[in-house]
Amino acid sequence: MKDARPADGRGRSVLCGTRCARLCTDDGLAAVLAADRALLHWRAVQALGDRGLAEHAVQETLLRAWRSCARFDEAKGAVRTWLLAIQRNVVVDMHRARAARPGDCGWEELGELGAAYDARPDFTDGLLDTVLVVQLLARLPASQRAAVTEVILRDRAYQEVADEFGVPVGTVKTRVHYALRSLRKLPQRA
Asked: Given Cys at both, which of 28, 87, 129, 147 links 61, Cβ 3.0 to 4.6 Å?
């Protein structure tokens, strides 16, 4: 494979001049891949949480580094530090792109979204449950139906319901107990 850009005698690209990260040559790119690819991939997985996206981030990092090889300044730091800075920008760009397009996400996220969607009861399920409860309550004697409606469905205290009905609290508890026992014996479909 030929070098991507013409090189001088010292292995630096003629197009890069004196500033060069040597990513523009096969040998330089191979050295960077051997030394830093695993670190770049690990950091991308940590930042993105997805191996596929991490691989994409590494490729984009190397592509951006290759394109800007001539802007590398050895006085500011090592090639590895420069690559990590480029990768940080790539990861930030990827997070921004995912936030701007929430529908564009990985398979794991789709599974989580699908499970959350299925976990919510449907409007028709709630309506059917209400109809079923009304039909089942209609089968109870009036005193038990009133006690269950107040204590269970309206979540009121036994004493409060007893005072309203003008009966002892034990009577309300007994009515609720027998009503629930009767409802358990009824078929689940009305």
From this structure: 87
